[in-house]
């Protein structure tokens, strides 16, 4: 669909023109970051105030994008009629429910923000262009340096995207969660039991049980893997620790991002000083063959990835001894 030209004022209230070259660079980096995200969410927000665009990228549904509505803006930042018309001209659908309905999961379905859906295969360049036009022309953000980001997976673990060139919000700003992933098709409790049955069969051990968190532990060669059923959306994660005692330097984060950009199924996550390799797969319905394949892939690549993480930790420790303990 051809995008309609919007002739809104691209300048911030101060009158300073937006630097086109910086925005072009940010647009390319945003497209690349979205392209490597897997079942994760990204919020790009202003460092002052509460203007934002946000994205939820899913392996099954594509990409769900949102732009802030007046329901989440203070009076001084509320969008005027011209800005609301510009959002519509850019193709954003208007809010379909109130924040109270969203919190209570009441009808009608939809988002309390302006929103757009992009099914697979997602045109990440077009999504990034839409986001930049929204930030500049509608939300009147003066420059990329006025932005910050936070990114996270479905379990709430932080995802690092240093290539964006933005400050990472810490703690993450309180944003309503993107609405694109909450459509389970089978009961969560039943999924956990199916995961347990598949783990018992794969391990040849009928005594395996779920732990207090509802997870099950499996052997992964000389490593240990944790298998976790996820509720929203229904899916399964298999992960194993690659390194502990990791210091999150910029160099290490950049290297982890490079590795993630290369990987196809596996994702590296740095959380609480440890690096994990994880694979997620959809479970609506749960397929034992997907479970077996995910465990096999993780077992095949875990040792090589652990070595890469160890080398990255060593390289980022200013020439000293590595700070990452190889597991």
How would you describe this protein?
By secondary structure, this protein is α+β, with helices and mostly antiparallel strands. It is 32% helix and 22% strand. The protein has seven helices and twelve strands. It has a six-stranded mixed β-sheet, covered by helices on one side. Strands 7, 8, 9, 10, 11 and 12 form a six-stranded antiparallel β-sheet that branches. Strand 7 and strand 8 (223-230) form a beta hairpin. The chain starts with 19 loop residues before the first helix and ends with a strand. 38% of the residues are buried. The model is unreliable at 1-18, 104-109, 180-186 and 318-324 (pLDDT under 50).
How many helices? The count is 7
- Report the C-alpha radius of gyration, rounded: 21 Å
**Overall average pLDDT:** 81
Structural class determined from secondary elements? alpha+beta
Q: How many beta strands in the DSSP annotation?
A: 12
């Amino acid at each position: 669909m051809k995008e309609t030209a919007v002739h809104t004022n691209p300048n911030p209230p101060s009158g300073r023109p937006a630097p086109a070259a910086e925005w072009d660079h940010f647009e390319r980096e945003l497209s690349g970051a979205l392209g490597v995200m897997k079942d994760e969410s990204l919020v790009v927000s202003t460092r002052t105030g509460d203007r934002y665009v946000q994205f939820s990228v899913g392996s099954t549904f594509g990409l769900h994008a949102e732009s802030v509505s007046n329901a989440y803006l203070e009076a001084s930042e509320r969008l005027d009629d011209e800005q609301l018309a510009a959002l519509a001209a850019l193709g954003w659908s208007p809010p379909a429910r109130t924040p109270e309905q969203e919190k209570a999961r009441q009808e009608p379905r939809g988002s309390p923000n302006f929103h757009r859906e992009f099914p697979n295969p997602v045109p990440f360049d077009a999504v990034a262009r839409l986001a930049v036009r929204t930030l500049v022309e509608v939300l009147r953000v003066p420059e990329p340096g006025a932005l910050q980001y936070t990114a996270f997976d479905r379990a709430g673990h932080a995802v690092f995207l240093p290539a964006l060139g933005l400050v990472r919000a810490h703690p993450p700003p309180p944003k309503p969660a993107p609405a694109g992933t909450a459509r389970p098709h089978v009961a969560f409790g039943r999924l956990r039991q199916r995961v347990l049955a598949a783990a018992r069969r794969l391990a040849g051990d009928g005594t395996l049980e779920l732990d207090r968190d509802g997870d099950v532990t499996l052997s992964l060669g000389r490593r240990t893997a944790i298998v976790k059923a996820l509720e929203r959306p229904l899916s399964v994660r298999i992960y194993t620790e690659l390194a502990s005692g990791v210091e999150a330097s910029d160099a290490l984060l950049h290297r982890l991002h490079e590795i993630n950009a290369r990987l196809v199924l596996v994702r590296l996550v740095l959380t609480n000083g440890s690096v994990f390799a994880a694979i997620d797969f959809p479970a609506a319905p749960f397929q034992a063959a997907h479970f077996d394949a995910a465990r096999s892939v993780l077992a095949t690549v875990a040792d090589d990835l652990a070595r890469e993480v160890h080398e990255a930790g060593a390289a980022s420790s200013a020439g000293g001894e590595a700070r990452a303990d190889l597991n």
